[in-house]
Structures
1.
Amino acid sequence: MTGHEHILTREFYIVESTLSLANVGRQTIVPLFSRLRTGRGQANPLAAYQELRKLGEVFPAPWGGYLVTSHRLCHQVLRDRSWRVPDLHWRLSQDDSARWSSPASRQMAASLPMLNPPDHTMTRKSLGNIFDRHSLAKLRPFIEETADRLTDRFFEEAREGSADFCSLVADELPVITIGQWMGLPEADYELLRTLTHDQVHTQELFPSRSQLALSDSATAQLRQYFTDVIRERRNSPGEDPISSWLRAWDGIEPDRSRADAAVHSLALFMILAALETTSHVLSASVRLLVDRPHEWEWLRRHPEDVAGAVEETLRYDAPIHMISRVASMDCEVAGVLVREGEMVQLMTGAAHHDPEQYADPHVFDIRRAQAHLSFGGGIHYCLGNALARLEATALLNSLLKRDARLSISAPPRWEPRIAFRRMTSMQLALD
């Protein structure tokens, strides 16, 4: 066989394989995603993930692009710099303008996680190492004190009956922490929390028109909020992060309006990234441990294992279950041809339960000590990972030092999403 014939045969094999995979079709994949997009599906997504993994490591999605389910391939794509994030250029090239050209989508495209080099490189450099060991050491006393105060209030209400852990603790600690760090008024925390919950719809796989409208409205309000904050910091700069970013961007960008726009995107990104994801880590860790009293009691006797419990929570039920990447050139993923510009959806929620990577993946084991993909990988590895870990560790330590046993008194309620997990209510009672 000549080299040319070999290439043609190989191309034919890849196309034929892709077509046969496409035959999996809507009758299998769409119902699984429809199930995941319900409160019931979010309460226990593992069965749907198991069905997805049976379809293979990578296969076409009925709506376009490809789904990747194995840990091996998710890890490979996340760390490979040839893969891109869906930036503004990619979004504006798509046919679904209502989805990708909405104000909320365009705002997200300007944020750090949706920038590709060289824009990503410059923006990341302007931030510096904001959550280094020194910064976290300064934040730790405040976070621990806040966790104690919130859990005190939670136990006061729980003594009168069941209390909602999400609204009293898990939704509060992240916004108080990031708000204090950024120097934002405490009176604004409730507004920021609400707008963040509404804005995240644009980052979902299948946002409805009403959800996009809600996200656009929240984005407009957040844009105005941080425009006012930046104007205030321009007039009265301090030692807070926003003032620091303004000084950094003034040294990079001579056009003040462009510098302000860059800082605006950073500030808005910090709020969006810090609240939704960390809130889920807090509520998920408590839910998983309360459901397993033997693990809870083990941690009470072995507080040195709390960090391991946080890591296992991040593996078992990460805050983000789906990550998007775009091919920068024609390439193969496990023998499947992905064309330049096509998107792959990395189903990290499924990958975290891949039996090829984790022994007994459906077992929640706080002593597992294995790496996970919850903070992404490569140049887009989550900037706030250490802060989220610190908040979760502080909260669990605060709960464990109390001589009390908790139980879930009503089934938790979930936002009907696919990519971003959010528990909206978890009623806990004292045993």
Note: Residues 1-21 have pLDDT under 50 and may be disordered.
2.
Amino acid sequence: MNFNTQLIHGGNSEDQTTGAVSTPIYRSSTFHQHQLGGNPKWEYSRTGNPTRASLEKLIAELEHGVAGFAFSSGSAAIHAVFSLYSQGDHFVVGSDVYGGTFRLINKVLKRFGFEFTVVDMQDLNAVENAIQDNTVAIYFETPTNPLLQIADIAKRHGVRTIVDNTFATPYNQQPLTLGADIVVHSATKYLGGHSDVVAGLAVTKDQQIAEQLAFLQNSIGSTLGPDDSWLLQRGIKTLGARMRVHQENAAAVVDFLQQDSRIEKIYYPGLADFPGHSVAAKQMKNFGAMISFELKAGLDAKKFVESLQLIDLAESLGGIESLIEVPAVMTHGSIPREIRLKNGIKDELIRLSVGIEDPEDIIADLKQALDQLN
């Protein structure tokens, strides 16, 4: 099946018991076993649930992996993947990652003896030089949050590659086909698509890793419930249709921002002069619908975002509604200011998740808010 068809008919799209075209929500916490020690398919919903299993099969197919795993949040998925490793293991991590990932690394994982070297993933020499004898994996986002930096996914370093594919989604990019070993998602974002579910996903193309992740998912227990699994699978069915509108609107918004003198800089991989554009064009189908931009020095980012009337000032992204935030205060506020500035996250930086409203209304709202700054 082609990708857009697979979104709707992939995985366990039809219930084998009843023929229902929407996978039922199996809320049962436990399942009757007809034989003692008979190795039943279903026994306890933390270990496995039919609704969650349908979602996990679908995301594995969409990402071209051997198995998928659904968690209670994107952070839970990332934590489970890091739990594959042990005290003393070293990781190379991209410098521009989600603030929650930064917090997990620095406030939790380092306490358990994990070692990290942070590098600019756009600098392949820096990545190579950061690898040590005890390096077990390279972890990065592409495009990154919030600067939309692009990293080449191709595996070159002889260690595992873990890619956060939240911004691109499998609609635009399938890292496992490009050389990655594990893919993670905050499925709360584009995959769910309607700002009504919090979830995380992990997919691998390696059977041994899959068996380890299955053990960790069951042992740690941060699994996605059946109701949220159903909501997420329903959201995925419309991913293709939504992404087409998201991206058309984003292109229109970028055109507007380029012509406004109050905008200092635009971060968007679709711009021909954007660093990483050529790599993005090679490994992505399209450039997504996330845009970051800096206001001119001296303009008040707080006043700008609070003046918006249609676009919601809110954390998260990838919903059908347009969402805007100030990373320095919101999503990346847990990162010390000196590190934020070093990594390019200025106080004037704005991150915009372009929704599927009429593009003229999105642009009109941006314009009237910018006009409040004059």
Note: The radius of gyration is 21 Å.
3.
Amino acid sequence: MAGRGAQEHPHGADRLCEAGDRVYSRAVRRGRVPRRDADPVPCLLELALLHPDPDDMDYLVPTAPQEVMTRLLRGMYEEVSESHRRVGSAVAAFERYAGLGSRVQQPQAAAEGTAIRVLEGLSRIQAAMDEATEACRTEVLTVQPGGIRREHELSEGLHRALALRGRGVRMRDLYTHVARHGQGLLNYLELMGDAVEARTLDEVIDRLILFDRTVAFVPANADRTMALELRHPALVEYLVTVFERLWRLAIPLTAPLPDTGIEGISHRERSIAALLAEGHQDAVIAERLGISVRTCRAHIARLSETLGAASRTQLGVRIAQAGLDGPPGTSGAVPLSVPGRESRIAR
């Protein structure tokens, strides 16, 4: 807006208030107005629409409407020109930034897509998994922790598994040994036939799904309502290496678990013994083996009874003496006499 006080007044010369319009119109018609008439409308002086009459300071004379129009148009033109200049500067700046992005990021983006994407919400995770399934052509590798697989967990991904099987995609799944006791998993594997090969371990890493060794999905929070979609080649290759090493250590689901070498001690109890020797609490052991805390404590009680331990401290000593303080097959244990039973540990 033009005028000396345009910044201080709530309106400009192009949109006068009612009182200001009446006084200015009167001044234009009569040639001048008494100064007291303008007292209620100081905007006319602030906008230089009225100014003192040099022949009589008690009167105010109007600025010619043509002059006011010229002043208004000049101000508007300057505002428009300034806006154009700012728009041009912004466009030039962002074109330069866009050019930098295309030079630095485009080659990587073209080869890898988005390297790391955070997926929040189960629906978005499922949509991303469906998209990766649709694009998969050769192989899927999965790690499924948590013990016995519930029916709803198996059924929610069944449509993807069947679609993959239909395209001849090979699947390899890793579970904990506890999963062997779930009928739902056995039914699932029977349905999938030769398309899926499953193995088990005492412990596995957190959930992992790899498609064609190009995209991986891992949980991003404890309740699995967030996930990371990974497409960076180095990250994906690292996860593939972890999977392959676990796979070599795992036991085929169709093969029995190896004997512990100690009468009365199961494979699971041997795993619990090794974790107890490492100093883990019952809840941690249960989580790592995919069993409940109650089941874990029942196994510990049987382990104590078999080894003749009356306390946790004594149990720790007995575990070490029996050579159960390491993974199966790694200890050179000595014969151990258990009260009421002769037990020998395989070397």
Note: The first strand starts at residue 33 and ends at 34.
